[in-house]
Design brief:
The chain is an all-alpha fold. Helix content is about 70%, strand content about 0%. The protein contains five helices and no strands. Helix 2 packs antiparallel against helix 3. The longest helix has about 40 residues. The chain is elongated. The protein starts with a helix and ends with a helix.
């Protein structure tokens, strides 16, 4: 995913230059696919602020119903910001995965005692009746 998002970012930065209309059509398709990918992962990991941002990018760059702003001076900052956002997602995601791996590995390394097996409720035997020994001992003690 990182190489694809990096390609999206580089494509946005290249879009700053005056290029043929075919490049911008391909750019719309590429950025829409990248925005859909990021949007899907953002919703899946409950990162709703990123999902909102990339939903706006998806709407702005969609190739089906293209939005024309007609001025290159308007598109240049949009392309730069979009490229930075794709780079941010590409590299920030990798560092978050490393942090999660460290958090998962850290308790195992620092634990001085072996991990206790977890018992599920179906594994525990519950005896609803009191043992007869306790009842008979209890009765003998009250007579003394």
């Amino acid at each position: 995913m990182k190489p694809f998002l990096t390609l999206c970012a580089i494509s946005c930065f290249v879009a700053i230059f005056r290029l043929p209309i075919e490049y911008y059509t391909i750019l719309r398709i590429l950025i829409s696919m990248g925005a859909l990918l990021v949007l899907y992962n953002a919703v899946r990991f409950k990162q709703y602020y990123f999902s909102l941002i990339f939903l706006c990018i998806l709407i702005l760059f969609n190739p089906v119903f293209p939005i024309y702003l007609y001025r290159k001076s308007i598109w240049i900052p949009i392309d730069i910001i979009t490229g930075i956002l794709f780079l941010l997602i590409a590299f920030a995601e990798k560092s978050e995965e490393k942090k999660e791996e460290e958090v998962i590995e850290t308790p195992e390394k620092t634990s001085a005692y072996p991990a206790q097996p977890r018992f599920h409720s179906r594994d525990i035997i519950i005896n609803p009746k009191k043992p007869k020994e306790n009842e008979s001992n209890h009765g003998k003690h009250s007579n003394h």
